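Continuing the series of single-chain predictions for the mutant panel. This is the parent chain; the variants come on the following pages.
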Amino acid sequence: GDVEGAIAAYEELAVLQPSCKEAWLNLGLCHSEEGDCYAAMQAYNRALDVDKDWGDAHYNKGLLFEDMCSPEEAVTCYRVATNCPSSCEQQGRYWSSCGLVLNDLGRNEEALHSYDEAIKATPLSLDAWVNRGQVLSEMGRYDEAIQSYKKALDLCNDADPGIWYNMALTYALLDDVSLAETSFSKAVGLDRLEVMAIIHNFRPGGPALEERRAEEREYLRERVALLADSAEESRWNDITRLVARLRGFEADPDWMLQRLLDSSAHGGETAYGTTWLEGWVSLTRGAGLSAADTGRASMAVFGSSLGWQCFLGHMDLGYSACVGYELLASQVSASEAVAREFGLDALEFRCQDALEADIGDLGLLWLNTYAWPSDVKEKLCSKILSEAPMGAMIVSYQPLPLLELDRFQQVLELQATSQLETSWDPELEGHIYKVAKRRLH
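Parent structure:
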């Protein structure tokens, strides 16, 4: 709609009727939609000047604080909202929002309490039961999590593939492979594309994921057409076949199930996501990442999963040797199968902790740092500064802690950042570093 026109109308109404709290709240909502957090906060505060016990105003302040990456302030606002006179439906919404933020903060006991309060207010809330199941699973209370998911399934007539997927993962964490397989089969039977979207952390959902995969195929088709009769045509034909093969794995229910069962051995904490090929190209072109640029023949990938960056590092960046390190044996097996199929004998995949890898002769180290704990990233940086050769290039999906301690003779110098579209974040920034000599002051 016409947000600017709405802002003008609500501003006029607020001037004419400054005690109209609805005008101030709606003005804040419009400013929030426009991304003007300061103006939105001012409007919400004016609404609260009129009615300090208005739950919806406190609630929308909480949402705004979330947008401003201030979760503690958001929790405070949601808790104030729960103490305001409001309907059961509003109470359920306030408590559920509070629980989500607390869960993100790792305060699971408080999150569980919030979901319990949400369910007291709105016992037929599907989301509250699902969120309760998720936090119970994170707490290791798997049997209770299953009961919450079963209640959620009762509310949706067993028709939600996401809940069945959560059930499958929870049964796997309980080492009940049979019920895990049955639940997973239910999820895929209801909506395979939606299960794929869940695994990819692709929030727009299954149909949008299929559209995005089609866009990638079209991008490759056009690129090959542009390179017709050139020296590059054969290579990009091979890359197109590779991408089709790997995307085929991602759509295969057997692969999805094996990955789920495998990840349960690691507490279900092994996230999956994919980088669209267009993002790979935009990040790697002119960034000094190729074997010709680094002057070295070896590359390694930490968290290699299906081996995407290993294959592309060899086929696109020219590294004759590449080693992928991955914790999940099912992913290593899949990567090895693709390497055999394409005759890529120089690529190696190891089911091994990446912190034990040999990185002494690398030209490029690719870090799939999405969802890695901060302490692991610090250990990784210490390893790089201690062991990586001078001039090696590092790609990370998140900023790395730039350790500049006296015990290191090297530092990580940020060379560039580039937008890198991934399944979990369409506006992710890729960070490119170079191992350099520490300057003495």
